[in-house]
Design a protein that fits this description.
Structural class: alpha+beta
Number of strands: 21
Radius of gyration: 20 Å
Largest sheet: 19 strands, mixed
Strand content: 35-45%
Number of helices: 7
Oligomer: single chain
CATH class of the largest domain: Alpha Beta
Helix content: 10-25%
CATH architecture of the largest domain: Roll
CATH topology of the largest domain: Diaminopimelate Epimerase, Chain A, domain 1
CATH superfamily of the largest domain: Diaminopimelate Epimerase, Chain A, domain 1
């Protein structure tokens, strides 16, 4: 390394969105060339790190804290802002652009308002239409305003986040629209079925729901792998063999959905999506905060694996897909529920989450026009992030 090498400053904002946090950039502050851009982002986050700690970057060494978002004013008719989300691998030089982060979506509107990309009312509710560039979908964000500023503080509590904040309501639109992802058929059910059977070496035949809503996802019943759905990250993430079985199912599901040409590609190059989640019937359990979740307070148990580890709560896009699956007969989620539900509350490792979706059957299959959930967001730090000069 050249001893005369200097650090460069890049304008950035470090934000929490939902139960995730990441580094936010304006598009003009990053290189236009994708390879150069990704190299910068990897260094910002501190990847690849063979120690898996990301000590020399902004990442937090978990899938929930190794994230970046790039935002710009939108030129698309009817949209105010567009953004790209990148999931940064911890131990590999990979920024995965294959999907969205539903948690950080809640921070996009506040970031855009604070950066002057859009006009917002002095008081009341700013309603922004976001274009999610990764999956080519519209999302409406309802951002509270007070005295000309984004209202970040409030009393809305989100399980998985220690402190309350102001509620931001998100509406995911046109979940079945045939224009998403670009690299595969984008129907809500890519195979045309609400359930499929995957033949997975080392696992056997697995009944799954392959769904594209929010992000591509693979849903299985917990009992398929001898689980209950009440497992904690601390316990499950110690079981390397079980995590390998989840990854095998996920990779084969990616191929079946048309998202990867091989299981090897899915595991090496497409780690972010599809996610794999498993579900069980309601049961009481202790959340990671020490609060007891009662069986009678939830409709089902839900756990999701993200970047090879059981998520500490629930991904935002996973929640959207769960809401859609709950509203459609024949899915794995619907069969566990025992009935069609347009609104559910499910239990995850950190507590509970309420989501809703309305589905209707058309001549072209099932249609979900909107899924709704609430999150919160807050700026943690703003200014510049520094990296060694490339």
């Amino acid at each position: 390394m050249n001893s005369a090498q200097r650090q460069v400053e890049i304008p950035a904002v470090y934000m929490r969105g939902g139960s995730s946090k990441g580094v936010f950039f304006l598009v003009e502050d990053l290189p236009a060339d994708p390879l150069a851009r990704d190299a910068v982002l990897l260094r910002v986050i501190g990847s690849p790190d063979p120690y898996e700690k990301q000590l020399d970057g902004m990442g937090g060494a978990t899938s929930s804290t190794s994230k970046i978002v790039i935002v710009s004013k939108s030129r698309r008719p009817g949209c105010d802002v567009e953004y790209w989300f990148g999931q940064v691998a911890i131990d590999r030089p990979l920024v995965d652009w294959s999907g969205n982060c539903g948690n950080l979506t809640s921070a996009v509107g506040p970031f855009a308002i604070n950066k002057g990309l859009v006009d917002a009312p002095h008081d009341g509710m700013a309603v922004l239409t976001l274009w999610q560039a990764n999956v080519q979908k519209r999302i409406v964000a309802h951002v509270p305003m007070r005295n000309g500023q984004v209202q970040e503080l409030g009393d809305f509590e989100l399980d998985g986040v220690a402190f309350p904040a102001a509620e931001i309501r998100l509406e995911y639109l046109d979940l079945d629209a045939d224009d998403s992802m670009g690299d595969a058929g984008s129907a809500m059910f890519p195979t045309g079925n609400t359930t499929d059977v995957l033949s997975v070496p080392g696992v056997g035949e697995v009944t799954v729901t392959l769904i594209n809503a929010g992000n591509p996802a693979i849903f299985i019943a917990a009992e398929t792998l001898g689980l209950s759905g009440a497992e904690s990250p601390e316990d499950l993430n110690k079981d390397a063999a079980l995590l390998a079985r989840f990854e095998a199912i996920r990779a084969h599901g990616a191929v079946a959905m048309g998202l990867a040409q091989s299981v090897e590609y899915a595991s090496l190059k497409r780690q972010h999506t599809p996610k794999i989640a498993f579900f069980g019937r309601p049961a009481s359990y202790m959340s990671s905060s020490g609060k007891r979740v009662q069986a009678e307070d939830i409709d089902l148990l839900a756990r999701i694996v993200s970047m090879g580890k059981l998520h500490h709560a629930m991904t935002g896009t996973g929640a959207v897909a769960i809401a859609a699956a709950a509203a459609i007969p024949g899915t794995v989620v619907n069969k566990i529920l025992g009935e069609v539900k347009s609104g559910i509350r499910f239990g995850h490792p950190s507590g509970t989450l309420a989501v809703g979706a309305h589905a209707q059957q058309t001549a072209h299959g099932w249609s979900v026009s909107k899924a709704v959930m609430s999150r919160s967001a807050r700026r943690l730090m703003e200014g510049s992030v520094l990296i060694p000069q490339p």
